[in-house]
Design goal:
The protein has 482 residues and is mainly beta. Helices cover 10% and strands 31% of the residues. The chain binds zinc ion (7 copies).
């Protein structure tokens, strides 16, 4: 180009003062600026420098600045729209590659050096490269008084959007956007920024440009190039699926649908095959699972799912859990009533104890009487010795009397029952004369050899007679009393 002190190059103008506005201008030509002199080098797609308003312009030509002088005092810059900006750049976009070679300064996708101007509602999607200097997606270097608003660059085309911000006016570098955002209208909305149609140059839809083979925000005057969208592979996120045309337009975007979620697998979209949504509910079996404390239904698909979990309970006192049927206890008779204390089932019969002629047996467990008396077992037998009868008193045989049942027995085993009268032996018949008893008491020989025996017998007889005499007197006396 040239090797003077001020070396400016631009697609529309080299440099414009604040008297001149650049509106609705487009550059499609290649800008190539080189300098070997000590002065500065400025190369812009629209203009090298502008102190005025640049509005509604785009550049699609590549911009190359090659400053081969080693003078480091010089500040070179290049930009897709302007190299240096002291005015206002608004509603512009750049499609041309920016390249700085040699002793590079500041290059930006829209503006190389934004000095004291403003940059609004513009974008750059072309790569920005610098051999030794700063390359930024939007602005290579900012000045003292500047402002930016709604400016965007395509992610990946440069390390960042704002190269050097000496005054740190920008806290974030949130200017990069995806190719889809450039194609689907997201960026376009920001560029229009709520203005009425007559106040901005943007077409109300993104259009395909064969030059970039992408769909982008363009100006109303641009009809776009013929193109038929072709969707690629299905892409998806948690909610939607879509396909993307090579031009970055998103196609067939819709919410996932179909499929059935289970507790272990989310629903599979019948269109794109992606899993989406939440896990489904468990599929509980009908059989009860249980441990010593609880019962529950288990999920047939996963190990964790449980339903209807609850503690065992036996309200009907049948020893089994009313819900799951688990046996919780065994029958027990701790109160010794022969019945299970819980379910009331009969567990045993009265047993043990000994019956006798008076009392039924007493159950060894519960202590109650049961069964029948044993009429042949007498535990209260009294023994009576035989007692000889006399003439004055009846005697008795040896016998046994049961005080419990009142029965008489002739043997100690109490097996031979007799009547009470059977025990009585009659009085001996009273003898008037001793002779009458002689056959009984006298020796068979008819002789009493022992004189002492005779004497004794005589004494007895006398006594009897004497007694009889007394009895007679007594009877007489009683009669007399009458
Ligand atoms: Zn397409
Ligand atoms: Zn889907
Ligand atoms: Zn489950
Ligand atoms: Zn249970
Ligand atoms: Zn029981
Ligand atoms: Zn009993
Ligand atoms: Zn008895």
């Amino acid at each position: 180009m040239n090797n003077g002190w001020y070396n400016y190059a631009g697609g529309i103008a080299a440099s414009v003062s604040n008297q001149t506005k650049i509106k609705n201008c487009y550059n499609k030509g290649e800008i190539l600026a080189t300098s070997t002199g000590r002065g500065c080098l400025k190369a812009g797609g629209i203009a090298g420098a502008a102190e005025s308003e640049v509005f509604g312009c785009y550049n699609s030509g590549s911009v190359t600045a090659n400053y081969s002088n080693e003078n480091t005092d010089s500040v070179t810059s290049s930009g897709g729209i302007l190299a240096d900006c002291d005015g206002t750049v608004s509603d512009c976009y750049n499609l041309g590659r920016i390249t700085m070679l040699g002793n590079s300064g500041y290059s930006g996708g829209l503006v190389g050096w934004l000095r004291n101007g403003s940059l609004q509602r513009s974008y750059n999607v072309a790569p920005v490269q610098s051999e030794t200097g700063v390359a930024a997606g939007l602005v290579g270097r900012t000045g003292v008084e500047f402002s930016v608003e709604n400016i965007y660059y395509l992610s990946g085309i440069a390390p960042n959007g704002m190269g050097v911000d000496f005054n740190r006016k920008l806290n974030t570098d949130d200017f990069d956007r995806s190719a889809l955002a450039f194609a689907d209208g997201t960026i376009l909305t920001k560029l229009i920024d709520g203005r009425s149609d007559s106040d901005h140059p943007w077409a109300n839809e993104c259009r395909y440009l064969a030059f970039t083979a992408t769909t982008l925000p363009v100006f109303k005057v641009q009809s776009g190039d013929a193109h038929t969208h072709v969707g690629g592979e299905w892409q998806s996120d948690g909610e939607n699926h879509w396909r993307v045309c090579a031009c970055n337009v998103v196609l067939e975007k819709a919410a996932h649908s179909g499929g059935t979620a289970t507790c272990v697998k989310k629903a599979e979209c019948t269109i794109c095959g992606a899993e989406y949504g939440d896990f489904g509910s468990h599929s509980f079996g009908t059989e009860w699972n249980m441990d010593s404390q609880k019962h529950w239904h288990r999920c047939l698909l996963c190990a964790e799912g449980r339903s209807d979990e609850g503690a065992h309970e036996d309200r009907n006192n049948d020893h089994d859990c009313d819900v799951c049927g688990k046996t919780l206890s065994e029958c027990a008779d701790n109160n010794s009533d022969h019945k299970c204390d819980l379910c009331g089932q009969q567990l045993s019969e009265h047993s043990g104890g000994t019956a006798n002629c008076k009392e039924k047996p007493k159950c060894e467990l519960c202590g109650e009487e049961y069964g029948e008396i044993d009429p042949n077992f007498h535990t209260n037998l009294k023994h009576f010795e035989e007692k000889a009868a006399t003439e004055t008193a009846e005697g008795n045989i040896e016998y046994w009397y049961c005080a419990d049942c009142g029965k008489y027995f002739s043997n100690s085993a109490a097996t031979e029952e007799i009547s009470e009268s059977d025990t009585v032996t009659e009085k001996l018949p009273a003898e008037e004369k001793p002779q009458k008893t002689e056959p009984k008491t006298s020796p068979k020989t008819g002789e009493v050899a022992d004189p002492f025996l005779w004497a004794a017998l005589l004494f007895v007889f006398c006594g009897v007679l004497t007694g009889a005499g007394i009895l007679c007197k007594s009877q007489k006396k009683k009669r007399a009393d009458k």
